[in-house]
């Protein structure tokens, strides 16, 4: 009829505001399907006596019980715990120092940032093998520099002595992982409103007090998150130790991942090797629950 306006209804099938939720749902679905299937399969294999090329028979918790009486497993469990705790703690401290230093308006800050984040950006194979060469007792540049400086008289076997080898692999892990803490904490520092520090100045707070009551609380959520991620990565670290020492000398630097690999693919005891890697799962879950609860509180 004349004079009556018609209206059309526009149906919106997509809105950009839902994009983060869609990405989160897809990521969760991926983890549940692919990671879940892998975990269930691994748990199933670890309860058998499966060997590579052989048949399997269900033995329940037999592999886990045998591992508790295995000296190599206990040694790997001890070093895995020490390796994760010390390296993550040192990376956290150095990462904080790096972030605070790079947050200052210093000259050439962009270039310094790029250089300090380089260890994290370099390929693992290239950087770790470079460290293995530098720490070598024959032709290693570190021994060479120490000798021409008259600090030592003969080359030190950095990777040949059990104690020195442990500290060497931890040092390389810290060198590679510190930039991850640094860049994450730096982002958190730059999100802190300057007004908070101005209030601190008015109240007469010194540098330590401003760090304790402003910087630390404001960055704690990020600190807890990167600590969780780094701990999980470190507990499963394979590349650094395998490329540096292959678990030696005398099995002194074995962690769960390297011992699992040798047991499964060199000794052909697939089920026992899987059991070694799965035995760290309860610790990872407990750590995840504890830290995530703290993050949600913050």
Number of strands: 0
Please give the oligomerization state of what you see: single chain
Helix vs. strand class: mainly alpha
CATH top level is Mainly Alpha
DSSP summary: helix tally: 14
How would you state the average pLDDT, rounded?
Answer: 88
Shape: globular
**Proportion of beta-strand residues:** under 5%
Main sheet summary: none
Show unreliable segments: 5-9
Distance between the termini: 62 Å
Describe the structure.
This protein is an all-alpha fold. The chain has one domain (70-297): MetI-like (MetI-like fold), CATH 1.10.3720.10. 70% of the residues lie in helices and 0% in strands. The protein has helices at residues 19-46, 62-68, 71-102, 109-116, 118-121, 124-134, 141-148, 162-190, 194-202, 207-235, 239-244, 256-266, 270-278, 281-297. Helix 1 packs across helix 13 (270-278). The relative contact order is 0.12.
């Amino acid at each position: 009829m004349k004079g009556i306006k018609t209206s059309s209804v526009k149906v919106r099938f997509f809105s950009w505001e839902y994009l983060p939720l869609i990405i989160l749902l897809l990521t969760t679905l991926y983890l549940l399907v692919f990671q879940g299937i892998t975990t269930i399969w691994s748990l199933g294999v670890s309860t058998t006596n499966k060997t590579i090329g052989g048949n399997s028979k269900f033995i329940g918790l037999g592999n886990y019980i045998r591992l508790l009486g295995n000296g190599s497993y206990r040694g790997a469990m001890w070093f895995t715990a020490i390796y994760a705790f010390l390296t993550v703690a040192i990376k956290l401290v150095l990462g904080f120092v790096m972030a605070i230093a790079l947050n200052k308006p210093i000259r050439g800050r962009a270039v310094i940032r790029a250089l300090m984040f380089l260890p994290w950006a370099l390929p693992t194979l290239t950087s770790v093998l470079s460290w293995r060469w530098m720490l070598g007792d024959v032709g290693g540049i570190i021994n060479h520099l120490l000798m021409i400086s008259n600090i030592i008289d003969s080359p030190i076997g950095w990777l040949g002595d059990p104690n020195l080898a442990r500290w060497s692999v931890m040092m390389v892990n810290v060198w590679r992982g510190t930039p991850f803490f640094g860049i994450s904490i730096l982002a958190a520092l730059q999100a802190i409103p300057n007004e908070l520090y101005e209030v601190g100045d008015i109240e007469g707070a010194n540098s330590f007090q401003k760090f304790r009551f402003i910087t630390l609380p404001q960055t704690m959520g990020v600190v807890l998150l990167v600590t969780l991620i780094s701990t999980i990565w470190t507990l499963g670290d394979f590349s650094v130790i395998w490329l540096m020492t292959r678990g030696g000398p005398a099995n002194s630097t074995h962690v769960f991942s390297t011992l699992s690999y040798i047991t499964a693919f060199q000794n052909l005891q697939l089920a026992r090797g899987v059991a070694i890697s799965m035995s760290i799962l309860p610790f990872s879950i407990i750590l995840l629950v504890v830290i995530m609860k703290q993050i949600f509180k913050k």
